[in-house]
Amino acid sequence: xxxxxxxxxxxxxxxxxxxxxxxxxxxxxxxxxxxxxxxxxxxxxxxxxxxxxxxxxxxxxxxxxxxxxxxxxxxxxxxxxxxxxxxxxxxxxxxxxxxxxxxxxxxxxxxxxxxxxxxxxxxxxxxxxxxxxxxxxxxxxxxxxxxxxxxxxxxxxxxxxxxxxxxxxxxxxxxxxxxxxxxxxxxxxxxxxxxxxxxxxxxxxxxxxxxxxxxxxxxxxxxxxxxxxxxxxxxxxxxxxxxxxxxxxxxxxxxxxxxxxxxxxxxxxxxxxxxxxxxxxx
Length: 282
Known about the structure:
mainly alpha, globular
C-alpha cells in the first residue's frame, strides 16, 4: 500500500504525493466554502478570532456558528485517528477509510445542490452553516490523517505554521549551502546547486514550497470553478481524494522509495538525524 508507511519510513516521493494533492483540496474547499457559504473551513485560527469579534459586537448566534466549526474540525481529526487505529487493529489499509470518509463529507453539499430545488447560495445562514460543518469536519480529518501519515512533517489545511517553518528552514539551508561552497567562485556555487538539489538538507524546504504552491493553486482553481459552475466545483476536490484512495490501493512501494537519497531519516523535531539510514539487507 503506497500510503501505509508512517513517519521516518516514508520516502520523499511518498510525502511529495500528499504535498502536491491534498493542499490543493484544502485550498479549493476553503474558497468554495467562503464564496457559497460565507465561511472559511480549512483553518480554525480565524474562526476563534471571529468568535471574539462577534461576542464583542453582541452577535452571539453568529459567534456560536464559529465555535461549531471549531468543534467539527476537532471531531473530524478524532474520526481520522479512530479509523486509523481500527484499521491497524484489523490489519486493513490504514488510510483508505479516512480518505473515503473525507470524500463522502465533501459530497454532502454536492448532493444537496443536485437534488434540492433551492440552490445552496439562496439558503439562510442558519442552514448554510450545516454544510460548512461537514466541510470543516472533512478538513480536520484530512489534517489529522496527513499529520499522522507524515510524522507531523506535512500540514495541508493551513499555511501559518508552514510559512514560519519555511522561513526558518530557508535560513538554515542558506547557511548550509554557504558552508558547503566556502571559497568557491559564483560559477562553481551555481553548478553546485545542481548537485545539491536532492540533498537531504533540502527535504523540508522542498516539501514546504510544494505545499505552499499547491494550496495557492487550489485556491485559484477553486475560485475559477466557483465562478463558472458554482457549488458543482466541489467535484474536483472529491475526485482528487478518491484518486488518492486508488493510488494507495493499487500502487506499490518502489525501490526508489526505499533508496537513501529519497528517504532522508529525520528526527521527530529539528533537522536531519545524525546517522544515515541503515542499508537494506540484500
